[in-house]
UniProtKB/TrEMBL annotation:
HAMAP family: PyrE. Its EC number is 2.4.2.10. Belongs to the purine/pyrimidine phosphoribosyltransferase family. PyrE subfamily. InterPro entries: OPRT, Or_phspho_trans_dom, PRTase-like, PRTase_dom. The gene is pyrE. Orotate binds at residues 125, 153. It comes from Candidatus Nitrosarchaeum limnium BG20. It comes from the Archaea. This is Orotate phosphoribosyltransferase. 5-phospho-alpha-D-ribose 1-diphosphate binds at residues 95, 99, 121-129. Keywords: Glycosyltransferase, Magnesium, Pyrimidine biosynthesis, Transferase. One of its GO terms (molecular function) is magnesium ion binding.
C-alpha cells in the first residue's frame, strides 16, 4: 500500500484534493474536491499513476483480453491517451452528445462491431457520464465489461455500473486517501469523519 500513501500525499500537497465545502457538477454538496486534471502538470507522478493503472489492468483484465481503450472527455481522456501510448492499445472516445456538424458521431475513433473495450475515467462519483458512454457503445455493438478509474468517491458508481454488467476497478478510493492523510496528521479527525459520513449517505 506504499503507492496509496505516496499518491495520497502527493494529491494533498499539490492541491489535487482539497477539503472544505464544495458543489459538484451534479449540484451535490461535498466535503472535498478532487481535480485530477492537475496531475499531468507533474510528469513523474503522472507517469507513476499511469503505470499503476496499467498494472491494475494487467492484473484484473489482461491486456490481451480487449481490443481498445475507451474514455469520455475531458478528464478521463488525458489519462486514457497516456495509457494508450504505454500499452500500445487503440483509443476511442465517447462524446457526451453527438456533434451537430460533420459526421454527427458520438463514438470517435476506429470501431468494429463486436469489439471489446475497457473504459478509463478519472474520478467516479455516481457513474452518470460513464453510464451514458456505455449505452452509446452498446448501441454501436461494442462489448464493455470492465471500467477503471483513478479515484472512486464511493457514492454509487460501482453499484450503478454493476447493474449494467460492468465491473469497476479503482487505483484508490476516497477513504484510503483520507485515512492515509489522517495517519500522517495531514487531515484532522473531523475531516475523516465528514468524508465517512458523506459516503454513508
Amino acid at each position: 500500500m506504499e503507492f496509496v500513501k505516496e499518491f495520497s500525499t502527493f494529491l494533498y500537497q499539490k492541491g489535487v484534493i482539497k477539503f472544505g465545502d464544495f458543489t459538484l457538477a451534479s449540484g451535490k454538496k461535498s466535503s472535498y474536491y478532487v481535480d485530477l486534471r492537475l496531475v499531468p502538470s507533474y510528469p513523474h507522478q503522472f507517469r507513476s499513476m499511469i503505470k499503476h493503472l496499467q498494472n491494475n489492468i494487467i492484473d484484473n483484465t489482461g491486456l490481451d483480453r480487449f481490443d481498445s481503450l475507451v474514455s469520455v472527455p475531458t478528464g478521463g481522456l488525458i489519462i486514457a491517451s497516456a495509457l494508450a501510448i504505454e500499452t500500445v492499445k487503440p483509443l476511442i472516445y465517447v462524446r457526451s452528445k453527438p456533434k451537430d456538424y460533420g459526421t454527427s458521431k458520438s463514438v470517435e475513433g476506429q470501431i468494429t462491431k463486436g469489439m471489446k473495450v475497457v473504459m478509463i475515467d478519472d474520478v467516479a462519483t455516481t457513474g452518470g457520464s460513464v453510464v451514458n458512454a456505455i449505452k452509446s457503445l452498446r448501441e454501436s455493438d461494442i462489448v464493455i465489461e470492465d471500467a477503471y478509474v483513478i479515484v472512486n468517491r464511493m457514492e454509487g458508481a460501482e453499484e450503478t455500473l454493476k447493474e449494467l454488467g460492468v465491473k469497476m476497478y479503482s487505483l484508490v478510493n476516497i477513504i484510503q486517501i483520507t485515512q492515509a492523510l489522517h495517519e500522517q496528521k495531514l487531515v484532522s479527525d473531523d475531516i475523516l469523519e465528514k468524508v465517512r459520513k458523506q459516503i454513508e449517505k
